[in-house]
Amino acid sequence: MLMSPQNLPERINAVLGQVRQAVATAGRSAQSVTVLAIGKAQPPQTLADAARCGLSHFGESYLQEALGKQAALRELPLTWHFVGRVQANKTRVIAEQFAWVHTVERLKIAERLAAQRPFHAPPLNICLQVNLAAEATKGGVAVAELPALAAAVAQLPRLQLRGLMCIPPEEAEPGRQRAWFAQLRVLRDELNAGGLSLDTLSMGMSADFEAAIMEGSTIVRLGTALFGARP
Ligand SMILES: *Cc1c(COP(=O)(O)O)cnc(C)c1O
Question: What angle do CA 120, 32, 113 make, to 5 degrees?
């Protein structure tokens, strides 16, 4: 479906209403969940229109595309999140241009981001991506290796380890969706019991954000729900 500019606000407001409803159903406070608008494949003007609907956190997966949009939208007070695979030779630009990185899966990448984060900038917010189902096609640290990675990343300067992120297998049934998200929540709670203080669960996309909110998601990453099918 092609998104006409006229129905974008309607669509965004409907989704924000669904998020508010899920948060209320979960008995959680309205401020406890941030909607991260995933703008990959969408033009800068669409993101500007979304910002006018009240969205201020934007996530991008492809660095070159993201840099172009950041330049086009630099007058807007937006917070940029990187949610794509982090290549080692791209860490400097990511450390300079983003406030958050959701997809750290190796210590080497975290070390580079720490070394390359500008000193005048606030700490770079980091989530560790966890490959819950050990899927070969997906990134993320293996569950068994998560505690060591988290402990090491938490020690790095210029970074703030905020929490965990996942892209679980697609499940049609809400109960099965929730089971994956519950696993990530338990992993976060175990790390906190071990002495970390992680406040973020980046989980839930267009097809499963309601289940993620029920299990404690603090950031839902929404693309097609907000913007329609990617062009
Ligand atoms: C594309 C993408 C999303 C958004 O996906 P939708 O299903 O369109 O909501 C969320 N997270 C990541 C990491 C993505 O790459």
Answer: 30
Residue 224: CB within 6 Å of ligand 1?
yes
What counts of helices (H) and strands (E) characterise the chain?
9, 8
| Ligand 1 lined by 168 (C-beta under 6 Å) | no
Question: Which pTM value belongs to this model?
Answer: 0.97
Question: Helices 63-72 & 44-52, crossing angle to 10 degrees?
Answer: 60
Q: Which CATH architecture has domain 8-223?
A: Alpha-Beta Barrel (3.20)
pLDDT, one tens digit per residue, over 18-70 is 999 999 999 999 999 999 999 999 999 999 999 999 999 999 999 999 999 99
- Phi, psi at 202, each rounded to 5°: -90, 95
Domain ranges for the chain, please list them: 8-223
Which residue minimizes the CA distance to atom 12 of ligand 1? 83
- For the CA of 207, the closest atom of ligand 1 is 7
Instruction: Provide CB contacts within 8 A for 158, sequence distance 6+.
Output: 113, 114, 115, 117, 119, 123, 124
Helix (H, G, I), strand (E, B) or coil at 155: coil
Mutational test site, ligand 1, from 42, 63, 83, 105, max ligand atoms within 8 Å of CB: 83
Is the CB of 164 within 6 Å of ligand 1?
no
